[in-house]
Amino acid sequence: MQKIVVVFFTSLGVLLGGALIGSIGGTLTKQSPIKIMFELAEDIKLWAVATAIGGTFSNLRVLEGGFMEGKLSLVVKQLIILIVAFLGAQLGIWIITVLTGGK
User: Fold this and answer.
1) Which of 16, 19, 28, 77 could bridge across to 41 with cysteines, CB 3.0–4.6 Å?
2) What is the domain partition of the chain in residue ranges?
């Protein structure tokens, strides 16, 4: 349970932090920081998930090993972690969308 909470907030933090700090670049280049923030949030969603789960290859190896060895509980646990990381990133996109006025 503790890992799930950490994964969720890591994914959320990567997305929010990346979009907010990245929008400073829009200000420096005389572009709309709000537009840049929204675009960055969409672009870094996958990276936020990958960062939260600790890298893509290790998680895929665990999934493969679980399938090959018949350890269904291990596979389910890894899938839950992936889903929670995705939900954290999706919440970050929703927050950025609300802050920037939406689509």
Assistant:
1) 19
2) 2-100
Q: Of all residues in the chain, what percent carry a pLDDT higher than 90?
A: 38
Residue 100 CB coordination number (10 Å): 19
Identity at 67, one-letter amino acid code: F
Residue 30's φ and ψ, nearest 5 degrees, are 60, 35
Six-digit token string for 55 = 């890298």
Q: Which residues, at least 6 apart from 48, have a Cβ–Cβ distance to it below 8 Å?
A: 11, 12, 14, 15, 18, 85, 88, 89, 92
pLDDT in tens, 13-43: 999 999 999 999 888 998 988 888 988 888 9
Q: Coil, strand, or helix at residue 17?
A: helix
More confident residue, 11 or 61: 11
HSE, CB side, 13 Å, CA atoms: give it for residue 32.
5
